[in-house]
Each structure stands twice: as structure tokens, then as C-alpha cells.
């Protein structure tokens, strides 16, 4: 089973999560990087990031190489911003059609992620959802994160 983990991360939590999971299940990874990244330090990230979400902005991405047909399943991982997946993920989904098996991972600081998962699935009408995982503060709770990732990886086999 060949798996690709597509992720966006501003402050490292989703990157940590994605790379650790890739290590466990031997998946490839694709990091999405906006052409004009928001600063990861300071309060301004909440203003600019929040604005992107509420205005449904689709930030331009740096060039990436995505060969969907090479994979049996795809995992999309994102921080939660204003209770949703990030605009960077929306840009990617607006540029690519993803049929087939999909799993979703959200990292957050306390949000209930159910609606965020539903909203993303609305953008993936041709997908079969294998599973969802939400992780609270993965960089601060690394042991708990590793435990949950190992549990989750069982669903992906
Ligand atoms: C613009 C912005 C909005 C956020 N909104 C939420 C939110 O609605 N709910 C929540 O639990 N966490 C929220 N967070 C916190 C992030 O989801 C959390 O820190 C996440 O793990 C960061 O992932 P990253 O380190 O990969 O960027 C927000 C962070 C930013 C920068």
C-alpha cells in the first residue's frame, strides 16, 4: 500500500506529526508551502491567518510535484485555523482532484474538529474516508502523539 501524506504546517506541529507518521507507515510526504508565507512568530499570524480563512482566500503555492496515480491512499494533514482546515489545503484541493482512499489529520489547541473534517470531505466528493485523527498540541505532547499515530497507522494498512 503506497501512501502520500500531504501537509501544511506554520509552526511545526503538523510537520512533526506528518513526518513521524510517514516514518511509521513508510509513506512519502508532500509539504505545501505558500508563495507568501505568514510569519510563524508573533500575534500577526492570527490576524493574517484568520483573515485568509474568513475571506476564503486561496493562497498561491510554491510549485509542487503531485502524482496522484502513484498512490493507493492519501493523507491530508493541517492545523486548525478558525475551526477549519487551512486555506493552503483549500488551494491544493482546488488545483487537484483526489479520488480514492483518504485519511485526514488535524492538529489544534482544543477545537472540536468534527466540522472541519466534514467541510474538507465536502471538497472531496469522490473519496472514501478511511479515518480521521485530531491531535492536541503534538509538539508539547509528543509521547501521546506517537501513541495515537501508532494506533491510527493500524487503520491505514
Ligand atoms: C490563524 C490561526 C488560527 C487558529 N485557530 C485555531 C482554532 O480555531 N482552534 C484551535 O484549536 N487552534 C487554533 N489555532 C492553533 C493551531 O491549530 C495549532 O497550534 C496547530 O497545531 C498549529 O499547527 P502547526 O504548528 O503545524 O502550524 C490557530 C492558529 C493560527 C495560527
List the main descriptive attributes of the protein structure presented here.
Rossmann fold; 157 residues; 6 strands; globular; binds flavin mononucleotide; 5 helices; single chain; 25% strand; 36% helix; alpha/beta
Q: How would you summarize the topology of this molecule?
A:
Blueprint: E1 3-7, H1 13-25, E2 28-31, H2 44-54, E3 73-81, E4 84-85, H3 87-95, E5 100-108, H4 114-122, E6 127-136, H5 142-155
Parallel strand pairs: 1-2, 1-3, 3-5, 5-6
Antiparallel strand pairs: 3-4
Can you tell me about this structure?
- The chain is α/β, with parallel strands linked by helices and 157 residues long.
- It has a single domain (3-155), classed as Flavodoxin domain (Rossmann fold), CATH 3.40.50.
- 36% of the residues lie in helices and 25% in strands.
- It is built from five helices and six strands.
- Strands 1, 2, 3, 4, 5 and 6 form a six-stranded mixed β-sheet that branches.
- Strand 3 and strand 4 (84-85) form a beta hairpin.
- Helix 1 (13-25) crosses helix 5 (142-155).
- The N and C termini lie close together (7 Å).
- The mean pLDDT is 96.
